[in-house]
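Summary of Year 1 activities. Much of the first year was spent building the evaluation harness for sequence design. The harness presents a backbone, in tokenized form, and records the residue chosen at every position. We chose the following record to illustrate the format because it has been used consistently in internal testing since the harness was completed.
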């Protein structure tokens, strides 16, 4: 074994009761998919950064909804419709509580990508004159600037490029330091009185680096810019209170945090959501319709046109309930220990390059670790690891500019979650240590 169990568990004691191997073993029993073999080896699932596995309570909640309360929400007075609406809105309340938001501040979307596009298209519609006087604050034009960062997922990059192109605004970005962290000195020069939007990720989906949200929010506020947080890699892994963070908007996805696919959420401060014009139109989001015009409901319903993702929302509510029961401080602590073991282990292997901050940099990271194996393409690395039962992610992880900065076209990424163990880390490191020999790389 390349990493001992004691090494993976070495961490300072906290006020909460940390997770341990025995409890994680009990948690794993809630995830039947993990109890299988792949290519004759026990499955080691280290791809939760892409999509997490689901505990039984999540898909049972969806099934129970279909078995007992399936009906359209907000549309009927019969018993099933009322029950479906209650469960739908109860899930909204659960997710809102989980991220420190009000119920009216959570808009259901298909995923985080849709949530981020919702903001961009709403601002675009406001620029075109929609929304009336209340939406004037969201208008953009020549002379205005939109700022993102050099480590964004494409979903928090391309919508802002397109919004700039549609409105005549200028798109700019905060570069990275040589250590692959945000260059905050450059940020203070880039974010100016012309900046209208500052969009940034809480945790890099590639590097696992945790950014200084407080500093970025303060920078945006100092110039009156709206702040947009990509919380896809923080909501599943860190305690999160969006109101306390002070961001104006945030996006996250259910499937990355034990929930179903096809469901995500947009957080927005209530007064902003109520002033933003919608960009999807149809039933369930209106107050009055004539043949000449329509008037729209307040948020969140004004952004939820058509039949909603009802069962998925119910499953999402069950997922955050599961995470709350485990305790997000404990989840973050456990993953930090696993991530540190992966960083140290990979950094010690000959011919393996750890991507991002150095192992001894002290930069805060989650349990997501990218690396490159000298002389072997990441896709070959991934296939070899799969032959050993180890599931990881390969490619540019929808962050091509970041990989270009790192000097690679693609990488291999291992990402841990609450159901992973020190033994999983050992399996990864043992497999990676054999990659170069298998491919005959000296």
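For this record, the design step produced the sequence shown next.
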């Amino acid at each position: 074994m390349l990493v001992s169990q004691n090494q993976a568990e070495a961490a300072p004691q906290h006020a909460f009761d940390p997770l341990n191997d025995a409890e994680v073993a009990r948690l794993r029993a809630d995830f039947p998919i993990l109890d299988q073999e792949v290519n004759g080896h026990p499955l080691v699932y280290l791809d939760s950064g892409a999509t997490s596995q689901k505990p039984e309570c999540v898909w049972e909640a969806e099934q129970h909804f279909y078995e007992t309360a399936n009906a359209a929400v907000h549309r009927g007075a019969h018993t099933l419709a009322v029950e479906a609406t209650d469960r739908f809105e109860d899930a909204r309340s659960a997710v809102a509580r989980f991220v420190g938001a009000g119920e009216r501040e959570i808009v259901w979307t298909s995923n985080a990508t849709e949530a981020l596009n919702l903001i961009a298209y709403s601002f675009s519609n406001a620029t075109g004159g929609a929304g009336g006087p209340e939406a004037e604050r969201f208008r953009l034009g020549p002379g205005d600037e939109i700022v993102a960062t050099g480590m964004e997922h494409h979903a928090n990059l391309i919508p802002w490029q397109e919004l700039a192109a549609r409105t005549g605004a200028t798109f700019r970005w905060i570069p990275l330091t040589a250590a692959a962290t945000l260059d905050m000195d450059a940020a203070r020069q880039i974010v100016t009185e012309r900046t209208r939007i500052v969009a940034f990720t809480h945790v890099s989906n590639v590097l696992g680096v945790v950014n200084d949200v407080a500093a970025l929010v303060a920078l945006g506020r100092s110039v009156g810019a709206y702040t947009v947080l990509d919380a896809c890699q923080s909501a599943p892994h860190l305690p999160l209170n969006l109101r306390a963070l002070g961001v104006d908007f945030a996006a996250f996805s259910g499937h990355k945090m034990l929930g179903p696919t096809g469901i995500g959420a947009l957080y927005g401060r209530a007064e902003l959501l109520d002033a933003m014009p919608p960009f999807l139109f149809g039933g369930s989001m209106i107050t009055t319709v004539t043949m000449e015009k329509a008037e729209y409901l307040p948020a969140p319903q004004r952004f939820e046109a058509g039949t909603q993702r009802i069962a998925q929302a119910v499953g999402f509510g069950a997922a955050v309930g599961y995470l709350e029961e485990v305790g997000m401080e404990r989840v973050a602590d456990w993953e930090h220990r696993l991530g540190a073991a992966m960083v140290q282990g990979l950094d010690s292997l000959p011919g393996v390059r750890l991507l991002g901050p150095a192992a001894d940099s002290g930069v805060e990271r989650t349990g997501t670790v990218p690396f490159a194996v000298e002389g072997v393409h990441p896709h070959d690395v991934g296939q070899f690891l799969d032959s050993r039962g180890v599931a990881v992610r390969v490619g540019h992880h929808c962050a091509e500019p970041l990989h270009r900065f790192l000097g690679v076209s693609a990488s291999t990424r291992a990402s841990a979650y609450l159901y992973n163990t020190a033994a999983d880390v050992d399996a990864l490191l043992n497999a990676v240590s054999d990659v170069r020999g298998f491919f005959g790389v000296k």
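Residues 1-13 have pLDDT under 50 and may be disordered. Quantitative recovery figures across the full test set are reported in Table 2.
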